[in-house]
Amino acid sequence: MLNRQLALLTLCAGMLMIILDTTIVSVAQPSIQADLGFSAAGLAWVVNAYLIAFGGLLLLAGRLGDLLGRARVFQAGLALFTLASLLCGLATSQELLIAARFLQGAGGALTSAVVLGMIVAMYDEPGERTRAIAVYAFVGSAGASLGLVLGGLLTDALSWHWIFFVNVPIGLATLLAARRVLADEPGLGLRGGADVPGALLIVAALMLGVYTLVEAGGAGWGSAQTLGLGAVALALLAAFAARERSAAQPLTPLRLFTVPNVAAANLVQTVMIAGMFGQQFFVALYLQLVLGFDATEVGLGMLPIALAIGLFSLGLSTRAIARAGAKGVLVGGLLLIAAGLMAIQRAPVDGLYWRDVLPALLVMGAGAGLAMPALPTLAMARSTPADAGLASGLLNTTQQIGAAIGLSLLATLAASRSETLRAGGEGAVVALAGGYRLAFAVAAGLALAAAALAVALLRGERAVAPGAPAPAAEHDLYAAGP
Length: 482
Hints:
The chain is mostly helical. The protein folds into 2 domains: 2-194 and 249-457, Up-down Bundle (Growth Hormone, Chain: A); 195-248, no CATH class. The protein is built from 16 helices and no strands. The chain has helices at 2-36, 40-68, 70-90, 94-113, 115-122, 126-157, 162-165, 167-181, 196-219, 224-246, 262-290, 295-324, 326-344, 353-380, 388-423, 428-457.
């Protein structure tokens, strides 16, 4: 039991480091821009390079975990992420920082793609598995808020370089712990599914797709660039699907999508994350650019949502799932997220943090703390040891795609609304606040849409008494070929 708990702690430590890095850069961007001379468009690539590599490689990384051994892939990803973090911290040019961020994204994909699959494999008893997934979900959902806190503190107290340097000792310690506590279980072997053409097609499709989404905000959703690149990405995805139907050892057996709840849960997650990721970004902007908070104050102002997520995901979600079922808890959590977003959508230009922001953050944190453990519980409930890595990688992939879609869509809508208000004679701050309010309203709509999809498409899992065996897996995706 102790070894299993240490293994869970080690996996979550690695995951936390990856999640923190998705938001820790946000608060430090003005300092990075001033120091390295980035243009506004060039600065976006400090984030985009990471997102493109991360989102593009997740599905392949999950399959490599099944083939080579998930513990080995986790450790390889940690080593690459730690080295890339050191290079980011040492960067003295725009080119080096962007290249190192791309390597960070690759390391993050290798590390995070296999974590959920390893947790599912370690915990057979449903109650223990639900509690372990709740810890994992807390790390994933609260880590983004904690990244804003840490980014603000390090940037103000030291310099932007330290938002990357801090990963080095954490990464080394986690890597040493992983070598000691994670079981080195062999994978299926490369002969079990080394579909190189399929791998090239899916990586190209996902990288181009994520690139198209993150650039859509600047180029325009209806622009020739967005439509053209999107069409090429879809064509590559279609070619990948055709390849998987005919390959003797497919990289991603298409029967994965016939496993109960897999396709539906990934669709729900895409829509849910599109709203949730965008709201964290725009709450931080509202605090900084409308209410006048500095970097440290923004980070501390976002801390309550992380605390609420922790309280509900670690303290209440397991019991709620046992009583009401994961589907009911997921839908309830999504409705709370929507309620919080609708509340903050009413925040005025001269708003007060304690009155207009904090209550909404607490409600959103409660909703995320319930929804985030419930969704992977549904998505992974029927995974077998042979497909857990791939299913985990798929869930992480749709999370990144949802984040890219949400941020690009909400940023485009907010900027358009702000420009319209400025053209109508409103001041800069009033125009910004109007754009952010529209972003919050659309994010609330996405949360409600995710709740509706969950009600319509997800199959509820039976409540299982503590100590009972987990439901029998119904699909072994690799036993019978494609």
